[in-house]
Amino acid sequence: MNGELGGPLIILGGGGHAAVVAESAARAGWRVVGTAAADGGTIGDPDGAGAGEIERAAQSGAALHAAVGSAEVRERWTRRFAGARFATVVDPSALVSDTARVGAGAFIGAGAIVQARASVGAGAIVNTRAIVEHDCAVHEFAHLSPASVLCGSVTIERGAQIGAGAVVIPGRTVGAGAVVGAGAVVVRDIPAGATAVGVPAIPRPPTR
What we know:
The protein is an alpha/beta fold. Helix content is 15%, strand content 28%.
């Protein structure tokens, strides 16, 4: 899943999540050769002047990893640099089943668990100590915050975010772009674009 370990890697993003990904990548054997961000890093803005340098590095064999919390930004950068190889970064302390599938550009953080027959889509985040139980499907660019728990056969659709410490009970679906608040307990399906908070989590419809 980690691809060419020991190969050069450019981190797209300059915030706290990018720092976490860079450290996990280094522990997993990648060589972080640059960071690209609008407000810092060794390379300029991926959406601006830094794009050319990023493309040249990718053509020379460097992999990229979009390391920012926003699903919209991760997806935009993945499309912007579609010709590049996006690295899947799995912290060595994570437990990932041999029967699980993890897509290109996904991040599996320290102490996270991805169990049997689960799938984690391209560009998704399974953050520190998050748990993805058997037969779950975490779709592209979704984000599981630290210590969140997906019980068996849960579906998290594209770009949805599960807050820190939240729990989704077995068989439930969280729709595309939905947000589940920290500490919430999801006992019913959450519609696309909704925000759900509380115990049990009560979905509010999107405001736009």
